[in-house]
Amino acid sequence: MKIFIFLFGFMLLSLSFADQYTDRYDDFDIKELTSNRRLLSSYLKCVLDQGRCTPEGKELKLHIKDAMQTGCEKCTATQKTKARIVVAHIREHENTFWEELKKKYDPDHKYKEIYEGFLNSDV
User: Fold this and answer.
1) Residue 104: how many other CB atoms lie within 10 Å
2) Which are the contacts of 84, defined by CB distance < 8 A and separation ≥ 6?
3) What would the pLDDT profile of 34-69 be if each residue is shown by its tens digit?
4) Which end of the chain, N or C, is surrounded by fewer C-beta atoms within 10 Å?
5) CA 32 to chain centre
6) Nearest 5 degrees, angle CA 112-CA 115-CA 117?
7) What is the distance between the alpha carbons of residues 118 and 82, in angstroms, rounded to a whole number?
8) Dihedral (C-alpha) 37, 10, 76, 74: value to the nearest 10 degrees?
């Protein structure tokens, strides 16, 4: 869920260098994202293969599955914080999208414990 942002906080996600995602998008404005339903919806549609992608959306789409499966272990501290914020927003205000994300990236609920643990932690 919050993974999604990771998901979005991960708009922030970019190419993987060593054992961390790039910090190229760490300054991505998640306040604008979470306060603009149309903007958020376009990013969500991108990662769900339902719409066009911006460069940030493409990076997110490349790493979202890995981030969910590993509890965002390659994320920077900023990405982890932003991912939790964005996913919390998605769960609360765009739950249908959250369900679609889980269905697409974890259809068998194999990684639920991992990403839920990440999303519910502070570290």
Assistant:
1) 14
2) 2, 5, 9, 118, 119
3) 999 999 999 999 999 999 999 999 999 999 999 999
4) C
5) 15
6) 100
7) 12
8) 150
Q: How many residues does the chain have?
A: 123
Q: Are β-strands 16-17 and 20-21 bridged in parallel, bridged antiparallel, or unpaired? A: antiparallel
Burial class (CB in 10 A: 0-12, 13-18, 19+), 33: buried
CA distance 75 to 110: 20
Domains of the chain: 2-119 (1.10.2080.10)
d(CA 60, CA 90): 15
Structure tokens at 67: 């981030």
Point out which residues pair with 4 in neighbouring strands: 7
Q: Which residues contact 112 (CB under 8 A, 6 or more apart)?
A: 102, 106
Q: Is 69:121 a contact under the CB 8 Å cutoff?
A: no
Say whether pLDDT at 82 is over 50.
Answer: yes
Which tens digits make up the pLDDT trace of 2-16? 555 554 554 443 433
